[in-house]
Amino acid sequence: MVKNKVLEIVIICLLWVSVILSFVLILDYDIQFAVGILGLLIVSLTLKKYYKLSIQLLLLLLLLSVFEIVKFSIAFGVKFGSVNLISMFLLGMIIVKRLDVIRAVMRSSSIERGNNEKERRRSSVEFFKRQFSNLSVQKLEGKLRDDDLVEEAKQAVELLLNEKKD
Prior knowledge:
This protein has seven helices and two strands, in the order αααββαααα. It is an all-alpha fold and 166 residues long.
């Protein structure tokens, strides 16, 4: 499990080195820097006990630091326009390393959505089946020819026709 955490720990250490160098080299601090230090402190203190929450906060802080809403360094930095390239690189490293986890989460949520969709369809078919249960075979066949019915209603009519014909 420790091997999985190495990259995040290294990134947190690099950010602390950056903060310490900024303290030593620059005496003028701004609110974004203070927020960055506070966020990094929270991430560091919660890393062991609340790892997932801590990493999510780290990702949020890095994302905010890409656009310098939060800063981890005022002593040095590499920027392209208003984008902090160092923060973007660190954020990209974590995302690439965790891509398999992100894919698994997305896959499980799509499977869950698929299961919910199947359940919704089955429930709709049962609803229409109850609605049409008192109709005669002729009326059911007439409904089946009706183009205005939704797919679930047509399935219910077909099931009822099969049951009544047997």
